[in-house]
Design brief:
Chain lengths: 465, 296
C-alpha cells in the first residue's frame, strides 16, 4: 500500500486512470480482477487511495455502507475507505466542514441533518457531478439513463436550475395517504380515488368508531405529502412552479383555494380531524392511527418499518392509497422524494469519491442496498431487483407509481443567503392555526402573500449584487 | 534568597489562578467575543468566508415578526415562571419547616424529585400528561364530569404557553424550596418563639420574619430562575411543541437554534444571541436594583 502512495506522489501529474507504474501492486490487481459486475474500471489505482465517507445512520442503518465499501475495496485493491456513521451525522461533520476539511463523500438525510445540505447549497460548496452521469456504464448507455426519469433535473439533484447535478440520487421514497387495509377489506370499503370520495368515507369512518383523518400534529410539514400532489392535480406544473418559485400570486389563485379548501374542510367538518391532532407529535399520531383512531394518515414508504414496534388494532394491515384526485377522470398521485449523496467541492479525494459514487449504481450495490438497508434506489427497475428483500407492502407502494399513479416531486427554490425565511416552515406551520380554526384561509393567504413577496425581493436583491 | 515571604506568596497565588483564568478566557470570554463579532457577518456557519455586513442582522431582527413573537413568548415565561415558582417554593418551604409534620422528609424528597430528572424526561412525561385523549389532565377532567373543559392544551395557541409554564414551574419549584428550607433552618428559632409569645400569627411570622431574613437568598434565586427559564425553555419547547402551534410557543432560544442550524443563517442567529445576552444582563441588573431596597 505504501508503495502505491509513493508511486502516486512521484508521478504527481499523471491522470488518475493511468495504471500505476508500481510493479508491486499490478500483479495483485490482475489476480483479483476476477469477472465481477463492477462498474469500476479494473486495474485502476488512485493517486490518493484513501476515502473518507460520512453517512447518516437512520432507519436504513449503516450495514449497507459497510458492505458496499468492503466490496469496493475488494474490486479496487489498494483503496481504503473509512466510514463515519451517525444519526446526527451533520453535527459530527459540521466542525470539519467549517475547518475546510470535509469528508470526501457524504450521505446526508433525516430532518436533523438535511439543513446542513441546504447550507452547503447556499454556499455553493458542492462538487459538480454532471460528468459522472454523462459517462457510459459498462453496459454502454450513459449512467443518467439508468436513473429514474425526472430525478436528475429535479431541484433535489440540480438545486440551481442550471441543468447541472450537484446531489446524486440515492434512496427513493414514495409518500401519500395510508389506511388499514384489513378494515377496508372486511368492511367492504373501497379506497377513495377522488377527494369527494375521500370526504364521503367519513360516514364509514364514523360507523367504525374513528375519525377520518389525522396527521403528525406538531410537525405540520408532513402535510406536504398530500398538499404538493394536490397542487399538481389542481393546477399542473404551472401552479407547482408558482408555489416552489415564490410567486406571491399563487396565494390568490384558484389552485390555492381548491387545495387549501381541503385543509379547511378537514378542520371544520364533523368527525374529519381526529380530536387533539394538533397537539400530537409524529409518534403519538401515527400510533393513534395504528390503533384505529383515524382512518387515514399521510406518511412515506418508511412507515411500516418506522412503526414496527408500535401497538396496533387487531389484524391491522398497512394499505397505501396515494393522494386522491380532484376528478374521477384523473389518476391518483403520490409525492416522491429522493435522498441524495454528495461530494463537497473541497473534498481531498474527489476522483476516488466519484468512482465510489459510480459504484453505487451497479446492480451489485443496488441489490446490496435492498438486502442490507431494505431500501430502493432511484434507479429504473430497482424495486424488482430488490423485491426479495423488501416487504410486500413496500414493494406495492413502489410499484404503484409504475401502475399509472402520477409521481409528483418538487422542492423550494433556495432562498437568498442570509434570509430569515425557511419556506417550508412559513408555508406549513400556520396550517396548525387553520386546523384549530384560529385562522381563516384569507388571513393565511394574506400572510403567505407577504412572505413570498419578501422572499422574492431578497432573491432579486441578491441576484442584482 | 532575595525573594521575600510575601512575594513568594503572591507568586504562588498567581500560579494557582493562572490556569483557571486561561481556561475561563478560552472557553467563556473568547466564545462570547466571537458571538459579538460573528453577529456582524452574513455567514452560513459552514464556509470559511463570512461576509461583513455591519449591523444589518440587527436591523432585520427588529423587522422579523417571528423573532418578535418569540421574544414576547419568552418574556411571558420569564415573568410568570419565576414569580409563581418562587411563591410556591417559599410557601412550601415555610410550611414544611414550621409545621411538625412527620412526613416532612418524605415531602422534601418528593418536591425535590423533579430537579434530579433530566429535562428531556420531564418534557416527554408532560407531553403525555397533556396528551389530548389519553393524557392525565383531560382524562381527569372527564372523570369529574368536566369533559367539556378538556382541550388539546399544547395544540391551542391560547393555552400552550400556560401549559409550558406549568411544566417549568413544576420542574423548578422543588429546587428553590430546598434552598429556602436551608435558609429558614438557619434563622434562629428564638425569633419565631418570641413572635409566638407576642401573639403573631403564622402568616404574620411569614411576612415579618421569614421573608425579610431570606431576602438575600430570594434575590439570588430570582436571577437564577429568570436565566433558568431562558435555557430550560429550549429543551421543553423543542420536545413538547416544536414551537407550535404556528410558532405560538416559539422561544428565543429555539428560534436562535433554528436560524443557526436549520436555516444556515449563523450570523443572524448570533445577532439573536447578542440581543438575548444584553437582555438577560439588563434583567439581572434591574431585578437586582429593584430588590435592593429590601436588603439589609
Amino acid at each position: 500500500m505504501l508503495s502505491t502512495v509513493l508511486a502516486g506522489c512521484g508521478s504527481s501529474n499523471n491522470a488518475n486512470n493511468e495504471p500505476s507504474p508500481s510493479a508491486s501492486t499490478a500483479p495483485t490487481e490482475a489476480a483479483t480482477a476476477a469477472p465481477t459486475e463492477s462498474a469500476a474500471p479494473e486495474g485502476t489505482t488512485f493517486e490518493n487511495p484513501e476515502l473518507d465517507v460520512a453517512v447518516f445512520q437512520g432507519g436504513y442503518g449503516r450495514e449497507f455502507w459497510d458492505s458496499v465499501a468492503e466490496e469496493f475495496m475488494k474490486d479496487n485493491p489498494g483503496t481504503k475507505i473509512s466510514i463515519t456513521a451517525s444519526p446526527k451525522i451533520a453535527e459530527l461533520i459540521r466542525p470539519k466542514i467549517v475547518a475546510g476539511n470535509p469528508p470526501d463523500f457524504m450521505y446526508i438525510a433525516g430532518s436533523d441533518n438535511t439543513p446542513l445540505v441546504s447550507g452547503l447549497i447556499k454556499d455553493k460548496a458542492l462538487l459538480d457531478l454532471t460528468s459522472v452521469f454523462e459517462e457510459a456504464t459498462p453496459e454502454g448507455a450513459p449512467l443518467k439513463e439508468k436513473i429514474l426519469d425526472g430525478v436528475l433535473n429535479s431541484r433535489a439533484s440540480s438545486p440551481y436550475d442550471d441543468g447541472k447535478v450537484y446531489l446524486a440520487p440515492y434512496n427513493f421514497g414514495v409518500m401519500g395517504l395510508w389506511y388499514n387495509k384489513a378494515l377496508f377489506d372486511t368492511k367492504g370499503i373501497t379506497p377513495p380515488k377522488t377527494w369527494d370520495e375521500f370526504f364521503a368515507a367519513n360516514v364509514a369512518a364514523k360507523e367504525n368508531g374513528r375519525a377520518l383523518f389525522t396527521y403528525q400534529g406538531i410537525y405540520p410539514g408532513y402535510l406536504e405529502e398530500m398538499i404538493v400532489p394536490a397542487i399538481y392535480a389542481a393546477g399542473g406544473q404551472e401552479a407547482m412552479n408558482q408555489f416552489f418559485d415564490f410567486d406571491p400570486e399563487f396565494w390568490k389563485s384558484e389552485t390555492y383555494k381548491q387545495v387549501w379548501g381541503l385543509v379547511e374542510k378537514l378542520a371544520t367538518e364533523d368527525n374529519a380531524l381526529m380530536k387533539g391532532t394538533v397537539a400530537l407529535n409524529h409518534t403519538q399520531s401515527q400510533t393513534a392511527f395504528l390503533q384505529g383512531k383515524s382512518m387515514f394518515i399521510p406518511n412515506g414508504s418508511w412507515f411500516e418499518d418506522e412503526m414496527k414496534d408500535a401497538p396496533r388494532e387487531d389484524g391491522f394491515k398497512f394499505g397505501y392509497l396515494g393522494v386522491p384526485a380532484f376528478g374521477a377522470d384523473t389518476p391518483v398521485s403520490a409525492l416522491t422524494s429522493v435522498e441524495t449523496v454528495m461530494i463537497p467541492a473541497k473534498a481531498k479525494n474527489p476522483e476516488l469519491a466519484k468512482a465510489f459514487l459510480k459504484y453505487l449504481y451497479t446492480d451489485k450495490a443496488i441489490k446490496l442496498n435492498g438486502e442490507k438497508a431494505k431500501a430502493v434506489m432511484a434507479v429504473k427497475g430497482a424495486p424488482d431487483l430488490v423485491k426479495e428483500y423488501i416487504t410486500e407492502t413496500t414493494y406495492n407502494v413502489y410499484k404503484a407509481t409504475d401502475d399509472g399513479m402520477i409521481a409528483v416531486n418538487g422542492s423550494f427554490m433556495p432562498v437568498a443567503k442570509g434570509s430569515k425565511f425557511n419556506p417550508s416552515d412559513e408555508v406549513y406551520k400556520p396550517i396548525s392555526s387553520i386546523m384549530s380554526k384560529q385562522m381563516t384561509l384569507d388571513q393565511y393567504s394574506e400572510k403567505l402573500y407577504k412572505v413570498y413577496s419578501e422572499i422574492r425581493k431578497e432573491l432579486d436583491a441578491a441576484g442584482a449584487q | 534568597m532575595t525573594m521575600t515571604m510575601k512575594s513568594k506568596r503572591t507568586f504562588f497565588i498567581i500560579a494557582c489562578l493562572l490556569p483557571g483564568l486561561l481556561l475561563f478566557c478560552l472557553f467563556k470570554v473568547y466564545p462570547t467575543f466571537q458571538i459579538f463579532q460573528k453577529s456582524l457577518y452574513l455567514w452560513t456557519g459552514l464556509s470559511d468566508k463570512p461576509q461583513f455586513i455591519g449591523f444589518k442582522n440587527f436591523v432585520d431582527l427588529f423587522h422579523d415578526e417571528t423573532f418578535l413573537l418569540s421574544m414576547r413568548n419568552t418574556g411571558f415565561l420569564m415573568l410568570v415562571v419565576p414569580i409563581v415558582t418562587i411563591i410556591i417554593a417559599l410557601i412550601n418551604a415555610s410550611v414544611l419547616t414550621q409545621s411538625k409534620l412527620k412526613e416532612r422528609g418524605f415531602y422534601r424528597t418528593v418536591f425535590f424529585f423533579p430537579s434530579i430528572l433530566s429535562f428531556v424526561v420531564i418534557a416527554i412525561l408532560w407531553s403525555f400528561i397533556y396528551h389530548p385523549t389519553m393524557g392525565f389532565v383531560n382524562a381527569g377532567l372527564e372523570m369529574f364530569g368536566l369533559g367539556d373543559w378538556a382541550k388539546p392544551w399544547l395544540g391551542d395557541q391560547r393555552t400552550v404557553l400556560w401549559a409550558l409554564a406549568v411544566t417549568l414551574i413544576w420542574q423548578a419549584a422543588g429546587y428553590y424550596m430546598v434552598m429556602y428550607m436551608a435558609g429558614i433552618d438557619s434563622i434562629s428559632p428564638e425569633l419565631y418563639e418570641a413572635a409566638d409569645l407576642d401573639g403573631a400569627s403564622r402568616i404574620q411570622q411569614f411576612f415579618r420574619i421569614t421573608i425579610p431574613l431570606l431576602w438575600e437568598i430570594i434575590r439570588v434565586t430570582i436571577i437564577f430562575s429568570i436565566n433558568g427559564v431562558l435555557s430550560i425553555s429550549f429543551i421543553i419547547v423543542s420536545i413538547m411543541t416544536g414551537g407550535g402551534p404556528d410558532r405560538h410557543s416559539e422561544v428565543v432560544m429555539t428560534y436562535l437554534y433554528s436560524q443557526a442550524f436549520t436555516n444556515s443563517n449563523f450570523g443572524y442567529a448570533m445577532a439573536i444571541g447578542v440581543v438575548v445576552f444584553i437582555i438577560s444582563m439588563l434583567l439581572a441588573f434591574i431585578s437586582n436594583k429593584l430588590t435592593e431596597k429590601g436588603a439589609h
